[in-house]
Amino acid sequence: MSTAWSTPALVLRRWNVGESALIVKLLTPTEGLLSARVPGAKSPTASLHFLSNPLTLAEVHIVPSRRGHMVQIVQATTLGSFSTLQESLPRLQAAALVLEIVEGASTEGLANPVLFLLTLDTLRQLELTPPEHLDLVLLAFVWQVLDGLGAAPVLTRCIRTDSTEAGDFVVPLAAEGGFACAAAAQSFPPGARVPIDVLHLLHRLADELAKHESLPPDFHAPLPLVHQTLAVMLHFVQHAIHADLKTARPWMLHAASVSRP
């Protein structure tokens, strides 16, 4: 853009630049990802210092750079923050995962208002949801992100044989976009298998999210199953965004330690 403009924005990350400036990575509804320089914001007394905090939601006023490179934020008004997520380690870990997924699923300069609103709604749910149910919020978020990318896994048939008979276990194959049924998965090591209940949970979740924008309050599943299913879906996310999720390690490591045929 050649003129100044304003947009709501969520701070995803920030870097220090020189003695006083910051660079922030923002998620916006109209520009997708946006990297912007914030002059003088490093100082704790600066009026824009609040933009140094990830999870801050603000209305930012942006002007083109005089050098024709990175745009600059010259004014901002806070619209709130999700600071309460930082008061609990499980909530903070969940929020960090959301921010990393969103950054990987977004594109610089490509509007995605649906993802922007989904992200804000998910962060609000993470603030309000009991800690033991955070994984279910994340699972719904991950499914909706994959669905928005056109990368939700096939659930209705074996990705190798087209059979609709799954068996007692399945093997998630992120690179192939679905699951191999038991009959087609004999060559896979036992550690690659997950219970058929993972597939059943995803069926239920997908059906509910097709009807509603979020899961209903009475949607429940055993917590270990939710955790394991989330770990499986994070592999699909990594394949879809072509990047490893550093913040996903706690879920993946735990799931790997308990996953058995």
Layout: helices, strands, pairs:
Blueprint: E1 5-17, E2 21-28, E3 32-38, E4 56-63, E5 71-81, H1 89-105, H2 113-128, H3 134-148, E6 169-173, E7 178-181, E8 194-195, H4 196-211, H5 223-241, H6 249-258
Output the keywords:
alpha+beta, single chain, 261 residues
Overall description:
This protein is α+β, with helices and mostly antiparallel strands and 261 residues long. The protein has 6 helices and 8 strands, in the order βββββαααβββααα. It has helices spanning 89-105, 113-128, 134-148, 196-211, 223-241, 249-258; strands spanning 5-17, 21-28, 32-38, 56-63, 71-81, 169-173, 178-181, 194-195. It has a 5-stranded mixed barrel with strand order 1-2-3-5-4. The protein has a 3-stranded antiparallel β-sheet with strand order 7-6-8. The longest helix is centred in the last third of the chain and has 19 residues, at 223-241. The chain is elongated. The termini are far apart. Residues 257-261 have low confidence and may be disordered.
